[in-house]
Design a protein that fits this description.
Mean pLDDT: 84
Radius of gyration: 27 Å
Largest sheet: 5 strands, mixed
Strand order of the largest sheet: 2-1-3-4-5
Number of helices: 16
Number of strands: 9
Helix content: 55-70%
């Protein structure tokens, strides 16, 4: 079990114990305040019976699920006692309302003011019991982190155009341990030579990661040939280790910074986004539930469309194509086929107005974007989200990074069926238009939120109704 998994298990276990304790104490309060002795007899009989056990299990599962949705278990290695308090308070307020409505509101009482007292008792109890235990556990973990054997272990990757001494000094002042330093020479090299040189070092880096097992990868790159390092970052993403760059590094690209806590580390996590943890969890849950519902609801429509595609021209009903998704991982995207099978016999080509490769049925599907319906399966699988940067093929990504070296940052989030770029710009017919649309995807990445996702979905629905796809 990894350290992250172990810490997450400990936080979940401590919350389970806290919530269970709250459940039994709250039932004692309910018994006393509501005067249930005539109906249930002794307190022991009210608390310890089969129904109470079943409700108790549901009670605990509900609270753990709510805490998970709040993002409390996401970054267990970077807990902040200051951040824990508002997270706990907000969760307990919302959870207490739901529990009150499901567990207490149907209780028979002589005075309705008892309901308000019971809600106050439930909220106060959850806060008083849950937060102190969390505070103590986080304090213990912070002290353990500060001990030598628990400090973050760093793999430092640099090119010879960057100065290492200031970075190494900063890392040591922050209590980090530099496991290894890998230098990639790029000065006095042409673009193609630098590209080959970086790829040759990827195997060395991967071997070091496997053997040394670092906690964080710090990449400090300066000078030219920055676009070549996107290949390096794609190779590092798969290890699911935080990748950080100094704020002064050219790889940072001036992206908006979201500060968590007061650690003061002058590094930006390239594997993180500006979306809060609870928003990430709600977005993930929304994707799964809605994808499943929409697959069921639209199945009759997709059956009709499948028959139409089958008789429109020779070839498969579903078009499969490799795209690059989260952390640079390839996946197969699914669409209803809208082109003739020999459409790309001369190599990859983007669609354009009046494209003769598109079938008559395909033109209608594209107009209302009905060809995208099979991608609900991609969302359910976890390859995609409903809203996110549009996934591209590696053929075009390699060209895009030459003009937009920071394209790799978009792969920190799942690609979407729809995107800000799709609703504000639409389909791209050439590389120049792809670059222009990329600006909207970058805006989305910099301002990710559930509110923005909702706005993009509303614009998408309007586009579908208007039939402005192509």
């Amino acid at each position: 079990m990894s350290r992250t998994a172990y810490l997450r298990f400990r936080y979940i276990l401590s919350d389970c114990i806290s919530v269970t304790l709250c459940y039994f104490i709250f039932n004692c309060i309910r018994y006393t305040v509501e005067d249930k002795s005539p109906t249930f007899g002794e307190l022991y009989d009210f608390i310890f019976n089969l129904k109470a056990y079943v409700v108790g299990i549901i009670f605990v599962l509900f609270w753990i699920g709510l805490f998970a949705l709040s993002g409390y278990y996401n970054n267990v290695e970077n807990k902040s006692r200051l951040d824990e308090f508002p997270t706990t308070i907000i969760s307990t307020i919302i959870g207490s309302i739901i529990v009150f409505m499901g567990l207490v509101v149907d209780d028979v009482v002589l005075d309705t003011s008892v309901y308000l007292k019971l809600y106050f008792y439930l909220f106060s109890l959850m806060t008083i019991v849950v937060y102190p235990i969390r505070f103590i556990q986080t304090t213990i973990e912070i002290k353990r982190y500060k001990s030598l054997h628990e400090r973050d272990k760093i793999l430092l990757i640099m090119n010879d155009e960057a100065t290492s001494l200031p970075i190494e000094k900063t890392l040591r002042e922050e209590g980090k341990i530099i496991l290894d330093k890998i230098m990639i020479p790029t000065s006095n090299m042409q673009h193609q030579e630098a590209d080959i040189n970086i790829q040759q070092h990827i195997n060395e880096i991967e071997t070091c990661i496997t053997k040394r097992n670092p906690d964080i990868i710090v990449v400090y790159i300066e000078g030219k040939h920055l676009e070549c390092f996107s290949l390096l970052l794609y190779g590092l993403y798969k290890y699911k280790i935080p990748i950080k760059v100094p704020m002064r590094s050219m790889l940072f690209a001036g992206a908006k910074v979201k500060v968590r806590g007061m650690k003061g580390e002058p590094f930006i996590d390239l594997t993180d986004t500006n979306m809060s943890e609870w928003e990430k969890n709600v977005k993930w849950l929304f994707d799964k539930i809605c994808a499943l519902i929409l697959l069921i609801i639209t199945s009759p429509i997709m059956l009709i469309l499948a028959i139409s595609v089958k008789f429109s021209s020779k070839g498969p009903i579903i078009f499969r194509q490799e795209r690059i998704g989260l952390y640079g991982k390839p996946f197969m995207i699914y669409k209803f086929r809208t082109m003739y099978t020999e459409a790309e016999c001369n190599g990859p080509q983007l669609s354009k107005d009046g494209d003769k490769r598109i079938t008559k049925v395909g033109r209608t599907l594209r107009k209302y974007r009905l060809d995208e319906l099979p991608q609900f399966w991609n969302v359910l699988k976890g390859d995609m989200s409903f809203v996110g940067p549009r996934p591209e093929r590696s053929y075009y990504i390699k060209q895009l990074v030459n003009v937009a070296p920071y394209y790799y940052l978009l792969h920190n989030v799942r690609p979407g069926i729809t995107s800000w770029g799709m609703v504000k710009y639409g389909y791209a017919s050439n590389l120049k238009e792809m670059e222009e649309r990329l600006e909207f995807d970058w805006l989305y990445y910099e301002n990710m939120s559930l509110q923005l996702d909702l706005a993009v979905l509303c614009y998408t629905i309007y586009t579908l109704i208007k039939g402005s796809g192509k």
